[in-house]
Amino acid sequence: MRDESGAVIRLEDYRPTDYLIDRAELDIRLARHATRILAKLHLRANPAGRPAAPLVLDGDELRLVSLAIDDVPAAPEAFEASPERLVIHAPPAQPFTLTIETEINPTANTKLMGLYRSGSAYCTQCEAEGFRRITYFLDRPDVLSVFTTRIEADRDEAPVLLGNGNPVAAGDAGGGRHFAIWHDPFPKPCYLFAIVGGRLDKVADRFTTMSGRAVEVAVYVEPGKAEDATYALDALKRSMAWDERVFGREYDLDVFNVVAVSDFNMGAMENKGLNIFNDKYVLASPETATDADYANIEAIIAHEYFHNWTGNRITCRDWFQLCLKEGLTVFRDQEFSADERSRAVKRIADVRVLRAQQFAEDSGPLAHPVRPRQYREINNFYTATVYEKGAEVIRMLKTLIGDDAFRRGMDLYFDRYDGTAATIEEFLACFAEASGRDLGHFAQWYEQAGTPTVNARGHYDAEAKTYRLALTQATPPTPGQPEKSPQLIPISLGLVGQSGAEIALSPAATAGHMPGVFVLDGPSATLTFTHVPERPVPSLLRGFSAPVRLEIDLEEDDLLVLFRHDSDPFNQWQSAQTVATRAILRAVGAGTPPVPDRRMADALRHFLAMRAGSDPAFAAQVLALPTEADIAREIGHDVDPDAVHRARRLVKVEIGAALAAELAELYGKLSTQEPYAPDAAGAGRRALRNACLDLFAAGLPAEGEELAMRQFRGADNMTDRFAALGVLSHLPGTARETALGEFAERFRGNALVLDKWFSLQAMIPEPETLERVRGLMRHPAFSMGNPNRVRSLIGSFAMANLTQFNRPDGAGYDFLADTVIALDARNPQVAARLLTAFRTWKMLEPARRAEAEKALRRVADTPGLSPDVADISGRSLS
Ligand code: ARG
Ligand code: ZN
């Protein structure tokens, strides 16, 4: 346990280190139980630090073997070493070297931070504070060093030895051992350090950069899986080309390696020249990966590659600035996927994720600003707010200053801060300079937590031909921020006539900003449009131009006008979602099916006839109803998850039944046999066909079951097979159990596919599910030691099964509490992440709220908790 556990770290306390480490030469001798690290650090006093201060290096569970200062063994009174710290009382005044030898046990490292073993390979994860588990260091992002790394291992056990930077030497080390030396010429913080050693296969290629340099690119995987890495390699090359084309950023080393490992706490990691990935985001074949898996692989490969400039060449001054690299890099990967696939569909998918994850976080006890001001455990701040809302802030910036100024600002940022550890203020100053705009108020998006609500009320004066739009905004209180100020909210908007024509905006309405964008920067504003020939329907927040909740007094008929005619595809989709949301909310209130609303079914029928053929991916998004969690957030307080589930089900059944004929026909039309390819067009057709199957089965369960079973057995790809299994999983009976059995049998031994199988069963909205989940924990393919297994089975149950996690008897909460407590001893990071399933507990009805609180309190009161779980349980209860 780290001894600063419980201490609060504050942004305002930042000060530079007293020493700098210009160079780090590491010699790592890999061995399963006793790996030795010899680190020669070249230090000097930091001109910005305190003179003649003691040198305090960070450690975590380290054992010091030997220490020399300027190559002379250090006298015992010259230093003090503990597992967490190495203090040199009076370092030399001139630049000096420290030679530190430590010993660690990678096999015993179940936290998967620092150097650990995954399968038969050695690998590392150092962000945020894992490097201190390898050797003593100034483990913080503002200490940049040039690393040279010698790795030695048994040739048999680890024929492949990879490090950061470029390979400079390799050879025999005697006694069955061999070595490789890697040199990274770019100064970097130690969180970007990585090594890998193991028996691995690879797929490799060559990428020629825009200035004509050849780069060896390779993806390393477990033996026998190289073929499943070809899509990832292709995505990597496309990412490299895109970053040159769109941001002018060229790759800077001779090699770029990606390694897939099966035990990984997060998605992936951008170590310089040596990205390490959760294999879930690398391995794919048509038989084992869905279209969604392929899209994730593409996005995460791009994300980690893009970090080379936004994160590595320019890093963060301190961990409070995490969004400087993460929000920006998410924005970049979103844009990449939008360019490679459908921009409209990508935006809808991203907003779905934002609302499901970030809005949920922002409305509960774990809410925090995009740039937090304090933390106890930084690993708990790799959140949807830092990542997804962080990306929305960059998107708003681009909307506000326009594409050209945005690109100039980025160029200036790369130019000015290359090779440094920067702050949000420095980043924003580049855009202020490039655009000539004052971004002072805009910067508040980094400081103020909570999701603003924008309320809009429209009034048309037929006589004067004017349309008045009254806008107000308010942000609810969040922990530590009881009073909120108005945010600066870019509202992209248009007016749509009853027959669908776009009404020209009188110029005054959005004067001073980008065309079609009104900037709401106070508590309220009234917009007056003149020369409006007919009563318009306002289309607000086009493209979801700001991460806010929009309340607008539109009638169903007006929403349907937008659904049919809006030139903005996001708002087309949004208006259909709003109509469906209202129908479900009415059903929650009534407890019975609402009076069937013909208009919605008619509009969907018309829409499918017009658009299903030309834009299937978009049509699939339209057919997907808001989730139970969406509805729960809409209700906001005293939520009864069972009532939400019943109401949503009723509406789905009603729509499915009303459209059964059209859905069946469309399903048939989309069933033409074409060989599977993971491209966007094919994925769109499969998405729509599977959305049809899902709705059809809700309306006509018996026929749906038969159709789904046929698709399940006949599919030649995982997308269709798994979608069919998903439909079956919601139909209780023997067909479901048969299909689940066949699936497990077919994919026996394939851990990543069985994760899907675990997750699907954990999401069944029936009271027997908790017992099923307990049973699956004893399945031979399950292991509490593997984060992917834990997340697919227990994570899916807690995060994606609203009715069963929130069972009225509290058994779901107790189960999660027990699991988190047990897991905490082994892997605190994954345990803490699992516990965030309670992030919305305060919006439940009182009986469930009491049960949830009891379970949370039991976790919080457990002795010996990690700082990770102590922090989440503590904040959740506050
Ligand atoms: N920087 C990684 C990314 O690309 C995430 C690493 C998070 N690691 C952690 N231990 N919290 O998003
Ligand atoms: Zn990242």
Structural notes for this entry:
This protein is of the alpha+beta class. The protein has 5 domains: 9-199, tricorn interacting facor f3 domain (Immunoglobulin-like); 314-446, Neutral Protease, domain 2; 453-549, Sandwich (Immunoglobulin-like); 554-699, Alpha Horseshoe (Zincin-like fold); 748-877, Zincin-like fold, CATH 1.25.50.10. It is 40% helix and 21% strand. The protein has 26 helices and 32 strands. An 8-stranded mixed β-sheet has the order 6-5-9-3-2-12-15-14, with no helix packed on it. A 5-stranded mixed β-sheet has the order 17-18-19-21-20, with helices on one face. Strand 27 and strand 28 (502-503) form a beta hairpin. The longest helix has 22 residues, at 569-590. The chain is globular. The two termini are 24 Å apart. The model has no long low-confidence stretch (mean pLDDT 97).
